[in-house]
């Protein structure tokens, strides 16, 4: 069946199976920045924005995205570049597998709560797991990025 | 230094943040055949019959592979140098399945769905066998995990499958029993460490195609591309020259991607069919069918004299390698060789025991590699001994631990699977690590604890060491060339897996060539294009590969000076080079002009240097770890308020990335210390097979990490560097255990240390008193 998604501000028609998850449809259609991690919404690397809110695409049926706006990191390149500079300056990049999903979630936090305090930052991003960094450098980078935006 | 020891952002951070194609599955061919593995539901069984006729008839099924399709060439998945110190006890597919999740057969089809449908149609009849699930009962069990005769060891590692032994080891210096008997204070304690899962966020992934030269090209999320190429060639009898392995960006490894996982099946399918194929492990497969950290039982005896000098260490260790013996001997030996030398003033030391097979998920390489297990036992035992002697545990360590310029006879005796290499500690700043850490955690204000009413706060500590590569075995190499317009390409076999090696190696080259990191374009790990490197393991990259990069860059610089000397008509030693210009008296030429001239003039030539490095020794990094923990008195719930790490890793080539290595390892170590636990049902089925049932630390668990580096310069390292990738993981289990003791007077001797265990122990003691 066909679904219509406004992806990164472009209208697209995708042919999907009723049982297919959005993650598989996106990767199949070359949106490879959206990544497979845990298969059950535990790790956050498959995050996309659905109408500007972060959701795990590994457990969202593609059909449910019909008629909605989806944003992947390809849709926020300028912002991701900016966030990337903050990560770089704090040494917060390691394997990077989770980084595009992190950029999306941080961007969404900025839209929702630009003055988030330390605890709010941690709580907002708690679903974005990282096995590499120990979180401290990421936290510093996100804090400074948010601080400089407002 | 202009580049080294500076906070340089990762060379690839921006592109990765912006979602550029970087990881293995991003490069899979669009029409790849999908390979799915039907996995064993039994902990131990023999396949009697396979009925796959109706599955084969499905539209879209390319082939179904069973053990009958493969020649019986035993190999090891370990992903080590040749000859491997791990037993060759694995076949691509076998008629025996040895753990829940072991490979029964492989289905190859055009989509995931088709493969799933096919798997549902396949009927496998098993002869279900009694499994060996308790590693303490595995030795000489009536059931043999490996009854087959066509498996072997490459050299003597104590392999004895007829006794369920994958490996065994014994070493003794002095007469341990005699020295222990003469000691005023002795303790004997038994410790247990659990299996831990790596949980790198990118699952094991591999894909293949045949290129236009009719060669097999694999993209693999691996830590060891050159070993993968060799092992595939040996097991599948494909000529090595026909195989190319490309390692793109790897989404985390921690040792979990040192081994071969899907590579064998993917290589075979594409080689046989000529069609592209791929495999992406599900998270369940990552947990159930890759490998874990080796669980161990460690019986430790210590003896000290009346002055508090440690006189003897006795360690009898039993390790569980699960169904296959990957890294069985070497992880085992590291539990001794990178732990026992911490206390080098003893008169006698013994380390011995076996690594046994069981019908659990195999164990293999994992950051720390035995040292974390050994460290937990020894550093817990030291505090127990101190309590008995009524001696301050820090004073005891200051008295007994390794100091600069000293050595330990263990270095010469214990290597990794073989004899070791004698060495002195040219750099060992443990004393500074301990005193600075003590200050940073406010030890004297808190030790042993502060009673806050409902809560109790305590401190605990441990010291640790690791290595820097495997001496005389690990080789790293690098090629560097000068391009027109004055920039360089650096080709390394070293394997960037997220630890930052591409950045660190670029910094080393840039420093030697007096240029900036953006002028050094690095390309890592492609068996066709880059020189050989053993890969990312054993904390080797900065030290071993870094030395190779240093040499190659230095050689290129010398070549450039020789050419400039020809142009200037002078001696090359008289030329000054500042990274941008060459000077001789009143003559000067810019690097850009020189590089253009040498590329496009009559005397044109490509300047390129290749160099390699094998470490004659493995200088250990050292650290002291201190933890401040807050406990709820009623529930024993723990909060780590601060973890202080003071590390001697020589020069930090990139202080930010070095800190990231330590921070990340501390958090992984805290996970192992406090809650991570690979759990099985009584039938041997994995219970913790997903990320809901196997928790890793989240950012809410981490309050404060205080990580510092002491001044240290290791002469044998590139710009004074030692390694830093693993050392951080070693101290948290013992530091937490010691903090529990300092809070409640309760000793927990098995990992993970949970509130439940503390409460049970508390109640046990209270009941005894009644």
In brief:
The complex is a heterodimer of chains A (150) and B (770). Chain A has 150 residues and is of the alpha+beta class.
The total of beta strands of chain B comes to 27
Radius of gyration of chain B: 27 Å
CATH topology of the largest domain in chain B: Aldehyde Oxidoreductase, domain 4
Q: How can the largest sheet of chain B be summarized?
A: 7 strands, mixed
Class based on secondary structure composition and strand pairing of chain B: alpha+beta
Report the C-alpha radius of gyration of chain A, rounded. Answer: 15 Å
- Biggest sheet of chain A, in brief? 5 strands, mixed
Quaternary structure: heterodimer
Count the domains of chain B. 3
Q: Name the poorly predicted regions of chain B.
A: none
Indicate the low-confidence ranges of chain A by residue numbers: none
Q: What is the percentage of strand-forming residues of chain A?
A: 15-25%
CATH class of the largest domain in chain B, named Alpha Beta
- Strand order in space, largest sheet of chain A: 2-1-5-3-4
Tally of strands of chain A: 5
Q: What spatial form of chain A do the alpha-carbon principal axes imply?
A: globular
Question: Please, could you describe this protein's structure?
Answer:
The complex is a heterodimer of chains A (150) and B (770). Chain A has 150 residues and is an alpha+beta fold. Chain A has two domains: 2-74, Ubiquitin-like (UB roll) (Roll); 76-149, [2Fe-2S]-binding domain (DNA polymerase, domain 1, Orthogonal Bundle), CATH 1.10.150. Chain A is built from five helices and five strands, in the order E-E-H-E-E-E-H-H-H-H. The mean pLDDT of chain A is 97. Chain B has 770 residues and is of the alpha+beta class. Chain B folds into three domains: 30-129 and 204-280, Aldehyde oxidase/xanthine dehydrogenase, a/b hammerhead (Aldehyde Oxidoreductase, domain 3); 296-470 and 617-769, Aldehyde Oxidoreductase, domain 4, CATH 3.30.365; 475-614, Aldehyde oxidase/xanthine dehydrogenase, molybdopterin binding domain (Aldehyde Oxidoreductase, domain 4), CATH 3.30.365. Helices cover 27% and strands 23% of the residues of chain B. The longest helix of chain B has 28 residues, at 541-568. Chain B starts with 12 loop residues before the first helix and ends with a helix. The relative contact order of chain B is 0.12. The mean pLDDT of chain B is 97. The chains are: A alpha+beta (150), B alpha+beta (770). At the A-B interface, helix 2, helix 3 and helix 5 of A face helix 1 and helix 17 of B.
């Amino acid at each position: 069946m066909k679904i219509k998604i406004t992806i990164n501000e472009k209208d697209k028609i995708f042919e999907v199976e009723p049982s297919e998850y959005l993650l598989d449809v996106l990767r199949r259609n070359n949106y490879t920045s959206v990544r497979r991690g845990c298969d059950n919404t535990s790790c956050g690397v498959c995050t996309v924005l659905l109408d500007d809110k972060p959701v795990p695409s590994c457990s969202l049926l593609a059909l449910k995205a019909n008629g909605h706006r989806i944003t992947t990191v390809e849709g926020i390149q300028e912002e991701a570049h900016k966030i990337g500079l903050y990560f770089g300056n704090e040494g917060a990049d390691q394997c990077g597998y989770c980084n595009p999903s992190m950029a999306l979630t941080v961007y969404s936090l900025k839209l929702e709560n630009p003055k988030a305090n330390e605890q709010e930052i941690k709580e907002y991003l708690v679903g974005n797991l990282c096995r590499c960094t120990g979180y401290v450098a990421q936290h510093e980078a996100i804090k400074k990025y948010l601080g400089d935006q407002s | 230094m202009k580049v080294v020891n500076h906070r340089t952002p990762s060379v690839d951070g921006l592109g990765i943040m912006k979602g550029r194609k970087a990881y293995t599955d991003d490069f899979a061919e669009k029409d790849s055949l999908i390979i799915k593995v039907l996995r064993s539901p039994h902990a131990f069984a023999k396949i009697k019959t396979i009925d796959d006729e109706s599955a084969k008839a499905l539209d879209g099924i390319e082939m179904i592979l069973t053990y009958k399709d493969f020649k019986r060439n035993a190999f090891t998945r370990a992903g080590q140098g040749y000859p491997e110190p791990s037993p060759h006890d694995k076949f691509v597919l076998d008629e025996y399945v040895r753990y829940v999740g072991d490979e029964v057969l492989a289905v190859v089809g055009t989509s995931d769905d088709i493969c799933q449908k096919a798997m549902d149609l396949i009927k496998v009849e098993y002869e279900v066998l009694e499994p060996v699930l308790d590693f303490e009962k595995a030795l000489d069990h009536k059931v043999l995990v490996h009854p087959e005769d066509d498996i072997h060891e490459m050299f003597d590692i104590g392999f004895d499958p007829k006794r369920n032994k994958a490996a065994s080891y014994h070493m003794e210096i002095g007469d341990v029993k005699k020295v222990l008997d003469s000691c005023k204070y002795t303790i004997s304690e038994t410790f247990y460490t659990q299996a831990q899962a790596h949980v790198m966020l990118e699952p094991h992934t591999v894909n293949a195609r045949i290129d236009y030269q009719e060669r097999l090209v694999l993209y693999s999320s691996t830590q060891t591309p050159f070993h993968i190429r060799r092992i595939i060639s040996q097991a599948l009898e494909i000529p090595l020259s026909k195989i190319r392995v490309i390692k793109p960006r790897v989404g985390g490894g921690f040792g979990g991607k040192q081994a071969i996982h899907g590579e064998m099946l993917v290589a075979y399918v594409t080689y046989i069919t000529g069609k592209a194929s791929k495999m992406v492990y599900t998270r369940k497969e990552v947990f159930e069918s890759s490998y874990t950290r080796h669980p161990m039982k460690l019986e430790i005896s210590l003896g000290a004299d009346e002055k508090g000098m440690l006189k003897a260490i006795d360690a009898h260790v039993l390790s569980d390698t699960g169904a296959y013996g990957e890294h069985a001997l070497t992880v085992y030996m590291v539990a001794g060789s990178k732990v026992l030398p911490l206390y080098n003033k003893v008169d006698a030391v013994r380390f011995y025991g076996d690594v046994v097979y069981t019908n659990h998920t195999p164990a293999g390489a994992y950051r720390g590699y035995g040292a974390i297990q050994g460290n937990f036992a020894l550093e817990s035992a030291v505090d127990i001994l101190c309590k008995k002697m009524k001696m301050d545990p820090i004073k005891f360590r200051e008295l007994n631990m390794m100091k600069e310029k000293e050595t330990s006879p263990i270095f010469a005796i214990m290597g990794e699977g073989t004899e070791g290499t004698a060495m002195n500690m040219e750099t060992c700043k443990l004393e500074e690590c301990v005193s600075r850490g003590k200050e940073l955690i406010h030890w004297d204000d808190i030790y042993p604890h502060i009673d806050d009413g409902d809560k109790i706060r305590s401190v605990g500590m441990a010291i640790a060491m690791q290595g820097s590569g495997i001496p005389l075995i690990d080789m790293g190499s690098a090629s560097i060339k000068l391009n027109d317009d004055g920039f360089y390409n650096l080709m390394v076999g070293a394997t960037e897996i997220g630890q930052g090696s591409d950045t660190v190696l670029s910094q080393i080259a840039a420093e030697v060539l007096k240029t900036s990191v953006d002028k050094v374009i690095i390309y890592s790990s492609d068996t066709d294009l880059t020189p050989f490197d053993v890969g990312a393991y054993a904390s080797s990259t900065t030290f071993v590969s870094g030395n190779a990069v240093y040499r190659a860059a230095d050689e290129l610089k010398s070549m450039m000076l020789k050419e400039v000397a020809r142009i200037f008509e002078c001696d090359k030693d008289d030329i000054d080079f500042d990274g941008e210009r060459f000077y001789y008296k009143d003559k000067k030429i810019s690097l850009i002009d020189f590089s253009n001239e040498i590329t496009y003039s009559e005397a044109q030539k490509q300047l390129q240097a290749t160099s390699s490095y094998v470490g004659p020794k493995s200088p250990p990094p050292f650290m002291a770890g201190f933890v401040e923990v807050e406990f709820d008195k009623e529930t024993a719930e723990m909060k780590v308020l601060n973890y202080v790490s003071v590390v001697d890793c020589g020069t930090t080539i990139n202080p930010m990335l070095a800190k990231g290595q330590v921070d990340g390892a501390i958090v992984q170590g805290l996970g192992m210390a406090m809650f991570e636990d690979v759990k099985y049902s009584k039938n041997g089925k994995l219970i913790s097979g997903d990320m809901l049932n196997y928790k890793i630390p989240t950012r809410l668990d981490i309050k404060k990490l205080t990580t510092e580096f002491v001044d240290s310069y290791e002469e044998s390292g590139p710009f004074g560097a030692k390694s830093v990738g693993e050392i951080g993981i070693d101290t948290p289990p013992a530091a937490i255990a010691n903090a529990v003791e300092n809070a409640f007077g309760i000793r927990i001797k098995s990992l993970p240390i949970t509130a439940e265990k503390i409460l049970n122990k508390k109640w046990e003691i209270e009941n005894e008193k009644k």
